Amino acid sequence: MQLVTASGGFHPWPHLLRGPMGRMGPLLQQPPTMTERRHDIDALRIFAFALLILYHVAMAYVAGWDFHLKSAYTTDWLQAPMIAVNRWRMPLLFMISGIAIGLARAERAPWQFAWRRCGRLLPPLLFGIFVVVAVQAYCQGVSNGKVVPGFGSFLLRYWQVRPWPAGSFDGWEHGITWNHLWYVAYLLPYTLLLMAMLALGRKLPVSLPALPTSIALPALLLAPILWGAFCLLWVMPRHPPTHALVGDWFVHAESFPLFVLGYALAHSARVWTWAVQLRWPTFIAALLAIATELSIRHLGRSLDSVQLPALLATVRWDVVERLARAAYTWLALLALLGWARHGLNRPFAWLPYCTQAVFPWYILHQSLIILALYWLAPLQLGPWLEPGLVLAATVAGCLLLHEYLIRRVRWLRPLFGMPMHDSPTRTRNAATLTQA
């Protein structure tokens, strides 16, 4: 059976569009207005950054993965959940950033928005590189035996932006590093490029909602997966990720299209309706995809090719693994967006405060993780107490520094992405996504 859609086309999967009790869901009704406050996007971004704190704490304890400072208590079992989060955490942030810009820009001229965005992102990036992230470089350098203890003298040397002894810290050859702030370093040129595209009048891929459902929905589900597979199979082997901005073609190929797609679909009522209605199918399909990837990775380590039947031994399992990875990334993004739209689009009491706090917490969190581990590692507290204290110290440090220092000292606020002046109106309107 095929369903005739409102656009006159046929929908190949009518059962996915049926609401409760067999009634048609809202897809064929009047599209909801997209001028409403998008609390779900703010809440999803807060969730993503909160998860980032847990992820970066776990980076110190997952065996076989590089990090700026590693604990003595590493373990293999963390690899599977870390991979499951790794595949969508940064794509989600870039897509949310594009959505946020699409919702926040309104009718403002592209060059005006670009100027405001530079003023919002550039001070935190520079302050983060030269002050906040310097703590990470110092702790790593001292732990590596390449830097003499004494943070004051290290900072004076660090500010000279001269190369350090090889292996001092990540980025030693440049003299400085941005570590986790690479996301901000990429977001700034992405935003400028997007605004330049708009200013030049180039059409973005916003025609998807005008297509018949029988074309638009399969395109939404499959096209990003195919692009992700191309990036993994062709771009990544030739240009492995570096997070150095210049020449980081795999990360650009993966992240910038998601950023632009988020912007283009921000006001598409039909796409958001699909995301909600397909939240269970995309969630289940994402679970199957990540199970496939993890199974192939596990069997690839534990089985020799001679143990496989002849037919299975001829399969390009590396290709299958990357196809599953591409499918998982996009399906997980759709599921997250759909579930957030379904359950988080409401004015939670904590949302305005957390929306303003999320960017300062992001800037601070990894330096606090490294600093806490640097102090706690010599105490040999064990594999449970040490990570618990690192996490507690990180959360407490972010909370105290933001609440009692950053948000109360006017000149510090812009250095952490906050407006110079706070007001009740600004606090109430925090969900307008000024931190995109």
From TrEMBL:
The answer to whether the entry has keyword Transmembrane is: yes
Transmembrane residues, as ranges? 46-68, 88-106, 118-138, 181-201, 213-237, 249-266, 278-299, 319-339, 359-377, 389-406
> Which regions form coiled coils?
none
The signal peptide, as residue positions, is none
Keywords attached to this Swiss-Prot or TrEMBL record, sorted alphabetically, are: Membrane, Transmembrane, Transmembrane helix
**Superkingdom of this entry's organism?**
Bacteria
Q: From the UniProt record, which GO molecular function terms apply?
A: acyltransferase activity, transferring groups other than amino-acyl groups
**Which InterPro entries does the record match to this protein?**
Acyl_transf_3_dom, Glucan_succinyl_AcylTrfase
Q: Where do the Acyltransferase domain residues begin and end?
A: 39-402
UniProt KW Acetylation keyword: no
Which PANTHER family does this entry report, sorted A to Z? BLR4337 PROTEIN (PTHR36927), GLUCANS BIOSYNTHESIS PROTEIN C (PTHR36927:SF3)
Name used for this protein in its record: Acyltransferase 3 domain-containing protein
Whose protein is this, by species? Answer: Xanthomonas vesicatoria ATCC 35937
